[in-house]
Write a structure and sequence with these properties.
Helices cover about 40% and strands about 15% of the residues. By secondary structure, the chain is of the alpha+beta class. The chain has a domain of about 160 residues.
Length: about 240
């Protein structure tokens, strides 16, 4: 139960199990349980019914439908994150193979937003975010910041990372974060500043004068894919 999702792009890790908060899960439970122990306890109670007056409990169809919708929303969030990661890795690989790492900067500044916009449809919106962002438009919102800081703390403590998801009942949506880890190839543009190629430093100074995205080492938390999925019947905490 402590294994990451194999072959996940950008080092997106996932496990499923107890994570403390009501709507937050670790992913990749081999049993693929529909009702994680800590995540949707309220929904589980409703789903099995309440025992009153000695009557046999009956399933609550509405609660079951809510859980099914949650799983469907999670599947969409995971699929969108995996697809965006695949597209970025393919484009970055092509640029880095050309021997001109400075051209890879355009992948993150142009191709990534275009791919995210293309994948954002039918009630789903996806983007990248980071505590150490290059593009100010990728700065985290308060919810993203809290979870990115927690993920960084877990990584620093040597704990395995996990995807995060939470129901925002007020907005009627699922929020999801899929961690992105720094790989060796990322260091061509995100490594120690004094080790970057001169043309990379020149491009960054020209296009991102307030850049915060250098000084990484392989295995660091680069950021996360952040997804919102609209839900018809979101469960409440």
């Amino acid at each position: 139960m402590v294994s990451g999702q194999q072959g996940a792009p950008y080092g997106v890790l996932s496990k499923r199990g107890e994570a403390g908060a009501c709507e937050v899960y670790l992913a990749d439970d081999p049993s693929r349980r529909r009702f994680p122990a800590a995540g949707i306890a309220a929904a589980v109670v409703l789903a099995v019914g309440l025992v009153t007056g000695g009557c046999r409990p009956e399933p609550d169809r509405q609660a079951q439908a809510g859980v099914t919708e949650l799983e469907a929303a999670l599947d969409r969030a995971r699929s969108a994150s995996a697809e965006l990661g695949r597209r970025l890795m393919t484009a970055l690989g092509e640029q880095l193979a050309s021997g001109a790492p400075a051209t890879a900067i355009g992948v993150c500044s142009e191709i990534a937003p275009a791919a995210a916009n293309e994948l954002s449809r039918d009630g789903l919106a996806i983007r990248r975010t980071s505590l150490r962002y290059r593009n100010p438009g990728n700065a985290p919102d308060p919810w993203e910041r809290v979870w990115l800081e927690r993920l960084e703390a877990r990584l620093a403590a040597g704990e395995p990372l996990q995807e995060v998801h939470e129901i925002d009942a007020a907005r009627g949506e699922l929020r999801y974060l899929g961690p992105i880890l720094v790989g060796p190839g990322c260091l061509r543009c995100h490594g120690a500043e004094d080790e970057l190629d001169s043309d990379v430093r020149e491009q960054l100074a020209r296009h991102y004068p307030d850049d915060r995205a250098t000084g990484f080492a392989a295995g660091d938390l680069r950021g996360a894919f952040s997804v919102r999925v609209a839900m018809d019947s979101p469960a409440s905490d």
